[in-house]
Amino acid sequence: MISEENIKYSLQNLKMRKARSLLTILSILVGIMTIFIFISFGWGLFDYVEELSTGGSADKFMVQGKGGGVPGSSEIGFTENDLDTVEKTRGVFEVSGYKMQVVEVKQNKINKFVFMTSINPKTELLFESFNMKTGTGRDLKSGDVDKVALGYNYQIDDKIFPKGMDLNDKIEINGNKYGVVGFFESIGNPQDDSNIYITEAGFDKLFPEEDLYSMIVGRASIDDMEGTVERVEKDLRKARGEEEGKEEFSVQSFEAQLEAFSVVLNMIIGFIILIAFISVVVSAVNTANTMVTSVLERIKEIGVIKSIGAKNSEIFNIFLFESSFLGFISGVFGVIVGWIFSAYAGKLLTELGWGFLSPHFSWYLFAGCIAFATIVGAISGVAPAYNASKLKPTEALRYE
Q: Can you give the pTM of this predicted structure?
């Protein structure tokens, strides 16, 4: 343990070398700040994935066309026969097809192009899969041919249009007027929050020649999800007359999609944190250099202290405390700056419509970053502190 007197002595020495101490603190601070920022946002993304996986998506699977193309085009479309095939597959409890098209929406002289999705009011497969909830107004009903439900952003000024919309307003879609019956809660990204939802009857009225589904969503037992997905793929491949490995579609459970997303997310965040960690290692070298210089400048001083009875352990603790203190201060200010930046960036992203990119703040994160910075500082000072403790008083007093 280091005595109170030695702590005061160490702090006084750091104060006397302000410029060097500040530069050392700054070098570690940058690395800790970077680690804090990326961990907080990465943690937030994992929270978002966890929310989806523990919501209503666990017992769902999705059938989509491979490759790109405009939603609803023949390249990725599914017929009524495809829908019937999926529905009759063993293990499938419920199924629904969804048509999508790009539509033009207009307010006064301002027009935008957004996605419109058809829904079956009798099933909530799509909404459960993406954890979508009605925020204002009501859900669409079977008879709502000339009515729509809108994404969250339509309510907000200057998001889709200069003036946000209200319930019962009329919205012009492809030259036709539709009544607004409800708005969904924010999903957290601009594209989804600008979608338009309409009943199948309403979609068929607007696009009478469109008879292909862009995707199929089904419900199955969680315990047999993998087997059901394989059977759906096999039955659909046979019904469409496609060879194995050359299918124009893919079948995947939502859980598998979230796991794949999590793997990619882990890799990206891990790579970024590795870069930040390298920055911290460089900072540790800088701290070690600072402590070595401090030892060299204070060799005579060490000799005097040891000549009046100071033990080797006391000298070691003095210099180890100094390097640890530099790391601790770096960690404290690093998490403060990182927290301010993350909070501001999270608020800005939410205002821009990317609400799912919200940082997660936990005392574990704050304490962990501060502890890590302190340990880095301590490790950096071990060798210089050890060398200082082994100096002989007679040699130290003769040092020039």
A: 0.69
